[in-house]
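Appendix B, example 12.
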Amino acid sequence: MSISKMLKLSRAVLPHPVFSVLSFYATVKAYSIAQRLYPKTASTNGEGNAFRHAFWCCLILMYCSKVSSPQKALEFCKKITDLHEELFPNKPLETKMDLHNNKIGMNYFMQLLPGIHRQFFEKSFFIDELKKKTENAKILRNLDDHFEGELVYLDEK
């Protein structure tokens, strides 16, 4: 990682040490659960990757909302997940897919928020619904595709 990228990352995480630790924990949890549920596609650009990105954002929001306001958690989640795509660039279609699936996860969490006190959220609240969304995920074929509200993945067959 270049010096400029390390500085950018530092500027994002140092002002928010608790959020940063919680988002790192969310990253590890999301990866391990996605890997267990989708062992063949969690680390590729397939359906498991779509699940992992949406679930990752739900977990970041859940953990950070327990120590701060959901709005601050959402701002941090968007900032840190967008920064991840910038610091570790992919091909344009892969980046679009990841950013789209991140947004799906953030929107899903915020949709649930009015009905559940943020202190009572658990990771199990997200898994079943995101698995359903994964079953109905759409194949993203070009940068002009728009699948509002749907998870997307790349057809690598």
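The mean pLDDT is 94. The chain is about 65% helix and 5% strand.
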